[in-house]
Amino acid sequence: MAPHNDIVLFHYSFSPYAKRIQPPALPREDINALGVKYRRIPVMSIGRDIYCDTRLILQKLEEQFPSDTLGASQGDQKALERLLESWTIDGGVFSRAAQLIPPEMPLLNDPKWVKDREDYMGRSWAKADIAKGRPEAITHMREFFGLAESTILADGRTWILNTERPSLADINAIWPFHWLVGMQGALPPSLLGKEKFPKVYAWIDRFNKAIKDAKTSAPKVTALKGAEAIQHITQSEFAEPEGTVDAEDPLGLEKGQYVESWPIDSGFSHRDSGQLVTLTRQEVVLKTQAKIGHKDIHIHHPRTNFRIRTVGGTKL
């Protein structure tokens, strides 16, 4: 098995989802070389296990490092964690936040980046369309900021679960707000500024300090170029053994079937395929081969907002 700290994270600096785990360069070619077609960022590998979607990445980090977890232990607090995760990802917070990228942002002058965003979101990223959609997005973000200000932070608590440091509940809730506040020109101060929502901004300030302190005490991160990361991964062992396929799963799939899996909320034009090796209520794992080195790779997807279908045949 691969060592627990044998982690490679594919990300780029502008990704708001990458901020949940940690000129912007999109590592698409590097990920594709591993035989992974999933196109959202970040992607994490531990050995030759490739984990897609931050929901699953955070879950796996919690499992791999049980002595220093950020997740809650009590049932009601676990429920709040999951509800906050669903609120920011599925409840419209991130989709509206993405509409507040300022039209004058230099990245919008890069045709390659704009095309990548349009492919990801399934909508236009033309400057005129972004500007047209801002008023509606601001309206929704005022509601989201107000909800955080008047409910989960209303009593002046430092962290959502009254913990000594940020917990997984804070990470699940704060990332789109943190991303927007750090983006110059995204938020109109008169409507979404510090004076309007002081508790939210103070929460973000505390979170920034906690990140800075954590980086100071954490082991040094080694930056790898794409080719180095691919070589490192393909020469590693698997981090997890193969699991089983749930015999009671409504899809009625069997281990070894050739299937494809893809997200249905965004990035849905890119589908991973391979032999089904694990299927649980929370996760699907496919076996495929890296394009470089031709080693077997296990691609892990969450079940939430992902679709799985058979594509015929049982062997790669």
Structure notes:
The protein is an alpha+beta fold and 316 residues long. The protein has helices at 18-21, 28-33, 54-64, 75-90, 93-98, 111-121, 127-152, 168-181, 189-192, 198-217, 226-234, and strands at residues 7-10, 43-46, 49-52, 258-263, 272-279, 283-289, 296-302, 306-310. It has an eight-stranded mixed β-sheet with strand order 1-2-3-7-6-5-4-8, sandwiched between helices. A hairpin with a 2-residue loop joins strand 2 and strand 3. Helix 8 crosses helix 10. The longest helix has 26 residues, at 127-152. Residues 17-25 have low confidence and may be disordered.
Describe the global form. globular
Number of strands: 8
Q: For the record, give the distance between the C-alpha atoms at the N and C termini, rounded to a whole number.
A: 23 Å
How much of the sequence lies in strands comes to 5-15%
Q: What composes the largest sheet? A: 8 strands, mixed
The average pLDDT score comes to 89
Which strands sit side by side, in order, in the main sheet?
1-2-3-7-6-5-4-8
Radius of gyration: 20 Å
Specify the structural class.
Answer: alpha+beta
Count the helices. How many?
A: 11
Query: Which blocks of ≥5 consecutive residues have pLDDT under 50?
Result: 17-25
Helix content: 40-55%
SSE string, helices as H and strands as E: EHHEEHHHHHHHHHEEEEE
Question: What are the key terms here?
Answer:
single chain, 316 residues, alpha+beta, eight-stranded mixed sheet, 11 helices, 8 strands, 14% strand
Topology record:
Elements: E1 7-10, H1 18-21, H2 28-33, E2 43-46, E3 49-52, H3 54-64, H4 75-90, H5 93-98, H6 111-121, H7 127-152, H8 168-181, H9 189-192, H10 198-217, H11 226-234, E4 258-263, E5 272-279, E6 283-289, E7 296-302, E8 306-310
Parallel strand pairs: 3-7
Antiparallel strand pairs: 1-2, 2-3, 4-5, 4-8, 5-6, 6-7
